[in-house]
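A reminder before we start the practical. When you read a complex entry, don't treat the lines as separate problems. The point of joint prediction is that each chain is placed relative to the others, so the output describes one connected object in space. Small molecules and nucleic acid strands, if listed, are placed in the same frame. In the example below there are two entries. Take a minute to note the order of the lines before looking further.
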Amino acid sequence: MNRRNSIWSGLDWVTIFLFLALALFGWMNIYGAGYSFEQTSIFSFSNRAGKQFVWLMTALVLGFAILLIDEKTYDVLGYWLYGATILLLLITPVLAHDIKGSLSWITFGPISLQPAEFAKCFTAIAIAKYMGRYGYQVRSWRDLVVPCAMVLLPMFIIMVLQRETGSALVFLAFLLPLYRQGMTGKLMAAGVIAIVVGVVVLKVGLIPDSLLDKVLQPHQKTRIEVLLGMKEDPTGAGYNVNQSLIAIGSGGFFGKGYLKGTQTKLKFVPEQDTDFIFCTVGEEWGFFGSLVVLLLYLAFILRLIMIAERQRDVFSQVYAYSVASIFLVHLAINVGMVLGLLPVIGIPLPMFSYGGSSLWGFTLLLFILLRLDASRVNKLH
Amino acid sequence: MINDTYYRRRYVIAGIAIAIVAIYIIRLFALQIVDQSRRAKADNNALVRQPVYASRGLIYDRNDSLLVFNQPIYEVLIIIREMGTNFNVPAFCQALQIDTTYYNTRMAWIRDRNKNRGYSKYTHQLFMGQLKKEDVSLLEERLYQFPGVSIRKRTLRDYNYTAAAHILGSVGEVNQRDLDRDPYYQQGDYSGRDGIERQYEIDLRGVNGGEVLMRDNRGRIRGSYHNGELDRSAVAGKNLQLGIDIDIQELAEQLIGDNIGSAVAIEPATGEVLALVSMPGWDPRELVGKARSKNYNALLNDPRKPLLNRATQATYSPGSTFKTLQTLVCLDQDGIKPSTLYPCNGPESTPIKCTHHHGSPVDLGMALEQSCNPYYWCAFRDLLQRDGYGNQNNTFRHNYARWREGIMKFGLGSQFEDSDIPNQRSGSIPSVKFYDRCYGKTGWKAITIRSLSIGQGEVLVTPLQLANQAACLANDGYYITPHLLHNDSTYKTNSHRHETGIDTAYFHIVKDGMARVMTNGTGRWHNIAKWHICGKTGTVQNPHGKDHAIFIGFAPKENPKIAVAIAVENVGFGATWACPIAVKMIDMYLTKHYPELASEPIIDEQTK
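Here is the predicted structure of the whole assembly.
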């Protein structure tokens, strides 16, 4: 009884508040992005906002359930969960339907799930368990071989077998917890460069016959240039970004007003309720609204770093840093893409983008951390 | 338990997060605050401005009969981007009953930015205009087959009467000159051509409105922007009421029939034109819609020149009708007195013979009644040469200039500049300079220009001027600028009232004479005595065939309601050809004003 109470009292309500604030504002903007002139209620299941509400409610149930699970479970089951995840990732391309060239979705009746969204969480637990074992210390690069392999394995499966570049790139996030635990700065920088170059090579390499042809064809060159943002191609691959910038730029300081954005309402911006959801914020809420959203994210991430720093054991700290970095990398890649600073890589904006898998994935990630954090006090005894 | 060798790295990690967010905020600031150009780009994407056409003003006659109204027509519009590459051109042409050559030339024109300045492949472009319901019904049925094609309803002119085409004018699509001249016009607008339609274009056209609509990424219209806050509704054109009485207009057109000629009627008290007829004319419905250009060219090439508005543009010698003015000017300028007598030797008279039979000497009243040429020659001669012959050439020329000035006070020799009647010609009352050029300063005297005394020779007037002259006689010495609009306050001001400055007593002499023309003189054959008509016939010799028949008149004598002038070309005597037309017009008009007199016998007891 006593212990159960201490979990609620030890819970970090600031984080929960920020999580809910972002999720609710995201939900409003999903309604805005899907809003058309035959308007339906924000709760109607015929639109995505209605469905997102269901995802949000179930996510809260999921979060509550996680808080009830003993925190030691993750340490105990860490490798098993990781192994199961790898298996699931391997099975996914076999079971998946091809959705826009991606083989990352498994369908159960009306619900589609993307296992890659959960892989981040279990990879984080596995690394945390490995680095948290007694006596582990990063003394040389050899100590990083196992954690790096743990990261690269799911990354490679997602990238090559599932053809999901974006989700794979998120695994960059694990460089930060490794760095915090003692990986050298040089090695981290080398890791970032290696992963980015690797992704570009693999992505381009996935275009058939290009590996055979040592010299790139002109259209492939264009793709790479557009991918790297070196070339503007408004009607082709760069169309999305161009329309995205028009949407955001036309918002001005205070925006066009909620539900009044023409770029998003009239479908000039593609993927506007998933990957390009930030456009709706920029267009309808303007600079002011975008600033508020970015600062909420920053507060959220800094709070997670603060939580990470107050952990008393390496397992929790590595896990907490993994969570903070995953949110940071999602934010950086998604908003960077929408703002035209990074190539178009389709990954969701946490809590904002429409989608059950990503919301559940982030909930899982966050609430395990909240549970670990809430019970840190017990570790003193 | 925790290895804190690297505790400072928390700041590096937090710093990375802060740096990323800071970079993005700067980027947002640049996109949303510094660079304002994207607002316009977003509007370009999403907003379509579509004109809402104002309905053109209606035109009524003085008795509220609707003359000109609007009928619906259809336009075929295309959005080139939506037509796509698989557009079925042959089927489209078939649905519109056009050939592919027409399609290709039309598309080339639409795409040519030099000709079609508003071109954009994203917006509606006019493919074909002015179509009737039956022309588009086939296309309308199959519209689903043709992406990017739509049909728009507009209005076109329609007419209740076949009469008055010259006055009304027509409406056509704006040309490059209109577009250059007036920024109001957009490609595809209509504007008035000729007549009232052009004269009162700005009143009639109203103000076109605009609708701001939203379209989605596939160009489909998704409703109005901001609930129509930016829409401007069209302001309908002003309705006009003309002074025309369509019944006498129609009557006069029928009476002139296949002859070439004109008839003008004016209400003397107001200067309002009651009828302005030029024959041959055309059915105004011919110049509407698709057939417009074909029919217009046919009219243009017709040797009888139907497009010429003879009532305002043809000039004739006034013939004997001019004697009314001669009487007044000679009296006013002391050439003769009311009691002056001149001898007449009938057909033997020199230098101008008399074509009528009456006694001698002749007094003024008899001269007017019987249209005695010798009397008017003598009066004209005595007016111009009253200072004697010989070296008084300068006083002669001075007297001629004064005479000319007196004649021109009746509105002859110049256009009615302050009138709304378009396409007037000024006619001619020759100036001193004109004769000086012809004969030299000393080379001409009264005898040289003797034809002028009886309204022949170099005097040229339009039927409109003749009718105005009749109105001026009816008014005892003034006229209001003849005009087309009914009850228009601008014509009630003094600036449109033109005085001749001649004693009204002299007008009574002329009126008595003109009344006697109708009872005892050349007009007696067709007179309707109960209307107390005053008239004067004219038969004008012309070198190209039979004489022109001319008539001027007004009625009733005591309180004139209508003044008329008729000119019919190459038919013979004014008394037989022009006079009956005028009398019938007067009869119809006065019957409306005095219905109680309508049943009275036509022939008065006194006339016998």
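Discuss with your neighbour: Chain A has 15 helices and two strands. What might explain this?
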